[in-house]
Design goal:
This protein is of the alpha/beta class. It folds into three domains: 145 residues, no CATH class; 100 residues, Rossmann fold, CATH 3.40.50; 195 residues, no CATH class. The protein contains 16 helices and eleven strands. Helix 3 packs across helix 4 and helix 9 packs across helix 13. The radius of gyration is 29 Å and the shape is flat. The two termini are 46 Å apart.
């Protein structure tokens, strides 16, 4: 399914799932209310006659709504929800309900909230049923497009080569949602068409074919050999007839970049972006960076003073270690950490460089003699990284992103590995939550590029949540 339509359905489902909480709360509350009020005495006597007004329960839900949305995003995979069978979707709903029940119970107990247990359990059940109902309804609505002739999307593919065949197969894979390939267009009249493709004619015959066939969209698979005037003629014809035309741009370069159409004033520009282009998500990422960095700097200020005092008492040298690192697209900045090594450690690196345990240009050693005893503890639990919140606050780093490399390391990167500089470096990332120094250099680089290719705001949230147990387990720390 085309991304824009998929995103529309996914957003619709998310909104319906958020409202499911309100519906579930309303049904649960009034089920409990009417059971006590109208049920026989032998039944109503099981319930506590005291019941807070509905507005109090509504307030509790509104306060916890961000957690509700967060758990939905973490468990439901809205980016791929339409590709999942109903059985898998039902299992994800069960995961969400279990997680929600756990957190609701924890919050209720922690804050001593006067919540009726029947309301709590009924809400839990009703919310789950409504979530399942949302998915069944959406599934039925989309599948109905395949049975109704007027709801189907009929597509004509301009091309008969292997690329056209692959595109046709991809479109047909969404046949259950109403997408149908009407046929294929060859570039020349009289050309011998492949026998496994339904070739209805050539591009020159398109005006006649559009009168003979019902066509909603045309996918044009351009190539460098195809005449530009022919393409312009196709666009003009489809524009006159009001038919949507889509142009596959994979012929331009062998790329995996996200392609979008941008405008500079009135000048259209086809944009190939190998980095995240979600403006709202990037803005939300920056807001979270600032908030989390402020919390870290304020909450850990007393602890930082104690840590700094121990550093000064146990070894000579400054409290903080400052080092020039590479940031976004090679911008240089001064990274700040708690000092964990003896003074002048960089000058002694050449003496032990042959003991490097990490492949590639990065130096990692399990029992580095330059690390102080206190420094080993600080590194084990990543306490030395806390001052980097200052770099995050200044905008030089992010909470989540590839590790900030040394200038000398970057000189040894391959061309593809340099792409990890296309996003801001971070305090934590997939590498940190996947074993850190237990992972070799090439896999480390792959994880960073995987993060960039699959980035979303919610991926950052998941990585930050995974960082907490990773820090306490100290797995891969050196």
């Amino acid at each position: 399914m085309f991304h824009r339509q998929h995103q529309l359905y996914a957003n619709f489902l998310l909104a319906a799932d958020v409202l499911a909480g309100l519906w579930g709360l309303y049904l649960a509350y009034y089920l409990r209310y009417y059971l006590v009020r109208f049920a026989p005495l032998e039944i109503s006597s099981f319930f506590n006659p005291e019941l807070l007004p509905f507005r109090d329960y509504l307030l509790y839900f509104l306060i916890s709504a961000p957690l509700w949305v967060l758990l939905l995003m973490l468990t439901q995979r809205y980016s791929a929800v339409l590709r999942l069978p109903l059985g898998v979707q039902a299992f994800r709903v069960l995961q969400f309900i279990v997680a929600t029940g756990f957190f609701m119970g924890f919050l209720t107990y922690s804050f001593k909230l006067l919540v009726s247990r029947p309301v709590f359990f009924a809400f839990w059940i009703f919310a789950g049923l409504i979530l399942l109902f949302n998915r069944v309804i959406l599934y039925w609505l989309l599948r109905s497009g395949n049975t109704n002739e007027h709801s189907q999307i009929k597509i004509l593919i301009a091309g008969t080569d292997d690329r056209a065949r692959r595109v046709g197969q991809l479109v047909e894979s969404y046949k259950m949602w109403g997408y149908h390939v009407v046929g294929y267009l060859s570039s020349e009249e009289g050309q011998e068409p492949p026998q496994d493709l339904k070739v209805v004619g050539s591009t020159k015959e398109l005006p006649r074919l559009l009168h003979e066939h019902v066509v909603d969209e045309i996918i044009f698979l351009g190539s460098q050999r195809r005449n530009l005037e022919e393409f312009e003629g196709l666009v003009e014809l489809c524009q006159d007839l009001g038919i949507r035309i889509r142009v596959a741009t994979d012929f331009l370069l062998n790329i995996t970049s996200e392609v979008s159409l941008e405008y500079l004033e009135n000048l259209p520009m086809l944009t190939f972006s190998p980095v995240p282009e979600d403006t709202i998500g990037i803005l939300a990422k920056r807001v979270v960076d600032v908030l989390v960095a402020l919390v870290l700097l304020v909450a850990f200020a007393p602890f930082a003073l104690i840590t700094g005092a121990f550093i000064k008492l146990t070894s000579s040298g400054p409290m903080f270690y400052r080092q020039v690192r590479c940031g976004l697209y090679g911008r240089k900045f001064e990274l700040v950490k708690f000092r964990t090594m003896i003074e002048g450690a960089e000058d002694k690196l050449w003496e032990i460089k042959h003991l490097n345990e990490m492949g590639g240009p990065v130096f990692k050693m399990r029992n580095d003699p330059r690390v102080t005893p206190l420094g080993r503890v600080l590194r084990k639990f990543s306490i030395d990284e806390i001052p980097q919140a200052w770099n995050v606050l200044k905008g030089e780093m992010s909470m989540v992103g590839p590790r900030a490399p040394l200038l000398d390391e970057v000189q040894h990167y391959t061309t593809k590995q340099r792409r990890r500089l296309s996003v801001k470096p971070g305090i934590t990332c997939l590498w940190q939550v996947s074993g850190r120094n237990d992972i070799d250099f090439s896999r480390w680089m792959e994880l960073d590029l995987e993060y960039i290719d699959n980035w979303s705001f919610w991926l950052d949230i998941r990585i930050m949540l995974r960082t907490i147990p990773a820090v306490f387990s100290a797995r891969g720390a050196r």
